[in-house]
Amino acid sequence: MKKIIIISAVILLVGVGAYFFIKNSSQTPSQVTETPPIITTGTVTQQPKTETATTTKKVEQVPGEAVIGKSVEGRDIKAYTYGTGKTKLLFVGGIHGGYEWNTVLLAYQLSDYLKANPKVVPANVQVTVIPVLNPDGLNITVGSPDRFVATAVPSAEGATVAGRFNSSNVDLNRNFDCSWQASGVWQKKPVSGGSKAFSEPESLAMKNYIEENKPSAAVVWFSAAGGIFASSCEKGILPDTIRIMDTYAAASGYPKYDSFDFYETSGDMVNWFAKSNVPAVSVILTDHKNVEWSKNLKGVEALLKSYSK
C-alpha cells in the first residue's frame, strides 16, 4: 500500500513539472521579462535605481515657477523667472526668514510686478526672484512658508527673532564658504554657522543654483540699516559690483558703502557670491516693517536698463 502511494506521488510531481516546462517553453524571449523586486522601507515603496535614474542633467532656468531646493523641514524654496535673455539678474529675499519678513514681501511684490509688466524686462535679460530662502524661519514667525499678509506678523517686541534661523537653528547667512566659522556673530550675539559651509539644505540649494545658472548680477535684500553694501571675499570688490551699487544707489536714494563694518559677518552669502565671481550687493532696508517699494522699484528698473545695453 505504501509503495503505491509513493509511486503515485512521484507520477504527480513529474506531471506538474512537465506541464510548467511546456508552458514556459512556449513563450518567446520578448515575452519573458524579469521584473526588478520592489524595495520597501517602512511605509515608503521604492523602485531600484536604474542607470538613467542616477544620471544628473543641468537644468537651465526657464520662465515660470520652479523649486530650487528644500528646507530642513522639507518646504519648497521657489524661484520665479521672467524673460528669456542670456543676461541673468537675481533678486533674493528672506534669507533671515520671519525676522526680515519685509524683504519677503518686497520680493513677492517685485515678482508680481514683473509678471504684470513683462515688457519691463529687456529682451536680452532674464530676471529670477527667490522671495524666501528660509521658508522654515518665515513659517515660525507668520505661520506661512511663502505668501502672507503683514497683519500675520506678531507685534510683540522680539517675537520675530526666532524666525531669523532655520529649523536647525543655523543662521543661513553664516553658512556660506567665505571666511566661514562654526560660530558666527550677529550684532553682539553668537550664532551657529552650521557644522561646515553649506551644511544646510537651504544654503546648498543656493550654491547649486548659482553654480548652474551663473547670474550676471545679484541683489539680496536684508533689514534693517538703510543702505547698499558691496560684496567682496579675499580678492576685493569686483568691478561690476561697483557698477551695480552705483546704479541702484543713484536711482533709489540709498546711501552706498564699500563694506559692511557694523560687526563681523563670517560665512556671508553675498560675499560668497563675490568669491564665485558673481557681482552682488546687499540692499538693507531702513527698518523691519516697510518694503520701501518705490525706492527699490527705481533701483531695479535702473539696473534692468543698465544691463539692456
What would a concise description of this structure say?
The protein is of the alpha/beta class and 309 residues long.
Give structural notes.
It is a single chain. The protein is of the alpha/beta class. The protein has one domain (65-147, 163-307): 3-Layer(aba) Sandwich (Aminopeptidase). It is 31% helix and 19% strand. The chain has 7 helices and 12 strands. The chain has helices spanning 2-25, 101-116, 135-142, 201-213, 239-252, 269-275, 293-307; strands spanning 39-41, 44-46, 64-70, 76-82, 87-92, 125-130, 183-186, 189-192, 217-223, 227-230, 256-257, 280-285. The strands form 3 sheets. It has an 8-stranded mixed beta sheet with strand order 3-4-6-5-9-12-10-11, with helices on both faces. Strands 1-2 form a two-stranded antiparallel sheet. β1 and β2 form a beta hairpin. α5 packs across α7 (293-307). It is globular, with a radius of gyration of 28 Å. It starts with a helix and ends with a helix.
